[in-house]
């Protein structure tokens, strides 16, 4: 098989890109903000909080889960979602390094 474009980058670079892509839609940002606000696992309330169809919300939840930004646990016939703190720790570390580097730069 041929080499894909992602093979030219580090695992960390690819991971950050997947996370950033998942955060690249306002509905997904709204879902993250809602989960942060309620500070608990949510099963069905997310659809009621967004101006989107249930199927659309489900697709956004799937993208967030695939990127590792949220976790989902099956409880009965529902899936309950909450923030995955491990992925946000990765983002915090990544952006902290950028902020420190930018703060110390003396260009432009």
Write a compact overview of the structure shown.
With 108 residues, the protein is mainly alpha-helical. The protein is built from five helices and two strands; from the N terminus they run H-H-H-H-E-E-H. Strands 1-2 form a two-stranded antiparallel ribbon.
Task: Furnish the topology, listing elements before pairings.
Layout: H1 11-22, H2 26-38, H3 45-49, H4 54-66, E1 70-75, E2 78-83, H5 85-104
Antiparallel strand pairs: 1-2
Structure keywords:
108 residues; 2 strands; 58% helix; 11% strand; globular; DNA-binding; transcription; WH-like_DNA-bd_sf
Write up this protein.
By secondary structure, the protein is mainly α. The protein contains 5 helices and 2 strands. A two-stranded antiparallel sheet has the order 1-2. The chain is globular. The model has no long low-confidence stretch (mean pLDDT 89).
Question: Mean pLDDT, rounded to whole units?
Answer: 89
Spatial strand arrangement across the major sheet: 1-2
Helical amount among residues, as a percent range? 55-70%
Radius of gyration: 17 Å
Q: Care to count the β-strands?
A: 2
User: Low-confidence runs (pLDDT<50, min 5 residues)?
Assistant: none
Q: Largest sheet at a glance?
A: 2 strands, antiparallel
Count of helical stretches: 5
**What sequence of helices (H) and strands (E) makes up the elements?**
HHHHEEH
Strand residue content: 5-15%
Please tell me what the overall shape is: globular
Query: What class, by secondary structure content?
Result: mainly alpha
Straight-line N-to-C gap: 44 Å
